Amino acid sequence: MPRIVVDVMPKPEILDPQGKAIAGALPRLGFTGFSGVRQGKRFELTVDGEVTEELLEQARTAASTLLSNPVIEDVTRVEVLADNTAEGEQ
């Protein structure tokens, strides 16, 4: 079944304590070369049937009104996954 992926990130001016904690842990664990981390949210919406432009618009509306807090977060991506596997799965 097709999926629509929605990524939500904290606005740049909003403090990100989880990202800051991760950024502090990276060098202690031997991961160097990273200057910062921002932690966001990812949603995968499974679609019954074909992904239409109307359905994508519904996903965009849901992303901006339900999946994110527009006061402190930005929706950074709403798009159809390229295939039937989640990114990173094998």
TrEMBL record:
<dbReference type="Pfam" id="PF02700">
    <property type="entry name" value="PurS"/>
</dbReference>
<comment type="subunit">
    <text>Part of the FGAM synthase complex composed of 1 PurL, 1 PurQ and 2 PurS subunits.</text>
</comment>
<dbReference type="GO" id="GO:0004642">
    <property type="term" value="F:phosphoribosylformylglycinamidine synthase activity"/>
</dbReference>
<comment type="pathway">
    <text>Purine metabolism; IMP biosynthesis via de novo pathway; 5-amino-1-(5-phospho-D-ribosyl)imidazole from N(2)-formyl-N(1)-(5-phospho-D-ribosyl)glycinamide: step 1/2.</text>
</comment>
<keyword id="KW-0067">ATP-binding</keyword>
<comment type="function">
    <text>Part of the phosphoribosylformylglycinamidine synthase complex involved in the purines biosynthetic pathway. Catalyzes the ATP-dependent conversion of formylglycinamide ribonucleotide (FGAR) and glutamine to yield formylglycinamidine ribonucleotide (FGAM) and glutamate. The FGAM synthase complex is composed of three subunits. PurQ produces an ammonia molecule by converting glutamine to glutamate. PurL transfers the ammonia molecule to FGAR to form FGAM in an ATP-dependent manner.</text>
</comment>
<keyword id="KW-0658">Purine biosynthesis</keyword>
<comment type="similarity">
    <text>Belongs to the PurS family.</text>
</comment>
<dbReference type="InterPro" id="IPR003850">
    <property type="entry name" value="PurS"/>
</dbReference>
<dbReference type="InterPro" id="IPR036604">
    <property type="entry name" value="PurS-like_sf"/>
</dbReference>
<keyword id="KW-0963">Cytoplasm</keyword>
<keyword id="KW-0547">Nucleotide-binding</keyword>
<keyword id="KW-0436">Ligase</keyword>
<protein>
    <recommendedName>
        <fullName>Phosphoribosylformylglycinamidine synthase subunit PurS</fullName>
        <ecNumber>6.3.5.3</ecNumber>
    </recommendedName>
</protein>
